[in-house]
Amino acid sequence: MTAFLRNTWRGLTSMRTALVLLFLLALAALPGALLPQRSLNLRATQQFIEANGWWGEFLDRVQAFDVYASVWFSSIYLLLSVSIIGCLIPRTAEYYRALRAKPVITPRNLARLPHHDTAETDRTPDEVVKAATGLLRGWRVTERTEDGGARTVSAEKGYLRETGNLVFHFAMLGLIVALAVGKMINYEGQVIVLANGSQFCNAGTLGYDSFRPGLRVDGTNLTPFCVRVNSFQADYLPSGQADQFTADIDYQSGHDLETGTWRPYDLRVNEPLRTEGDRVYLLGHGYAPIFTVTFPNGEVRTQTIQWRPVDELTLLSEGATKFDPPGVTDPEQRRQRQLAVTGLFAPTQIVHGGVLSSSFPDLTDPGVAVDVMRGDLGIDSGRGQSIFEIDQSLVDSGRLTRVARENLDLGEEIALDDGTRVKFDGVERWVSLQVSHDPAQVWVLGFAVLMLLGLGVSLTIKRRRLWVRASPGPDGRTVVSVGGLARTDQAGYGEEFGRIASALRSGRD
After folding, report:
1. Closest CA to 322 of 306, 299, 346
2. pLDDT, tens digit, for every residue of 25-45?
3. Contact 400, 390 (CB under 8 A)
């Protein structure tokens, strides 16, 4: 049993196993890129499962829609970490011993080495050794005296190659750990904010439209800051293609929250606001039509609710603005008299055969095509529902009926059968913001840079050895033998060896 465990450990901590596990990790990550992930888009995941029947259910059972939190992905991740640690510890210990050891003794027959040279000189062995050590500045050099009076020099260079190799692998281990820590303590949320001075504060998960926490985040200790969206400016090309988006915002964080100080910032796509370790991105924008309902009793209510784009090029949008009847306390009557204004909004309207569409994304000639629905909206059922649409099952069951359909220009209104008037009063812009918190990103960047530096060092530096033997000759002259050995197959050592051997033959220092 002990032998089995020892062999298993040796196999796991071999570099070959680490490379295999790294390949398996990349392979295991493919479903996360090819399939919708539940943590990113729950709706798309559910639609995929329903559309693919038993195959979708099978993928769900094997956690293909939760790849990065799956048991099998985590197992490969953990085994890779253990394998790299098991590889690096003995290699580091061996490298430390090699750094402390003296260069190996000079081989008996230098002529057998790939690079060798022999010459005679009138200098004494001591003078040859002194000249050799002068030529080998920057090398690890050890001088020795052999039997018979011969003097030798053993030199090694290129130890930084192994340093770069170790730096690369330790940085890769650090990158793996940093990514894992980031998944535990990061969070990401999206929120839509009206661009009319409305504010968003990062005080809790309830302020977000969607929120994706890390494994160790419960949403109770978010980084405190506030953002106020004053206005939004969109620039378009004549073709309708977006040129630039800019949100004029103010923000406060840290000590500014105590003093009430607001700081201005122009938020643009790919130019996030960075504050208190968090990043605020501008993701998108759209329109929120304003509807005013005047009820038969004279009470007026106005709602400004964002509608979602259904055409990204022209920003034709759909939505549902919902109203509760005023002064109705009886639950049954209340459910019968709720109103919803649904339909399409066009920033630059164009009508063909009574069908509304949009020809340009900018707000030049706004119009809406609305269906006014009356009845039970289901907002008292205790179940969550989309702000962009009504529950179609309530329409199918007859609990929600259409009482009017009309195309409206800005300022126009519809009169319902009970005297209620619905007016298209105006339009506001909204922006979609994403807040990202990942303290580990700096470490990820640092380890990635170290990986590149370590890889560059290990690929460019050559590990090589050189020996010089100066032996007294029978005629009183000194025989100088030089041998060299490259520890890698990289070219270039022959030229360096030739320069050193030539300098020793000619007597240059």
Report:
1. 306
2. 888 888 888 888 876 677 778
3. yes
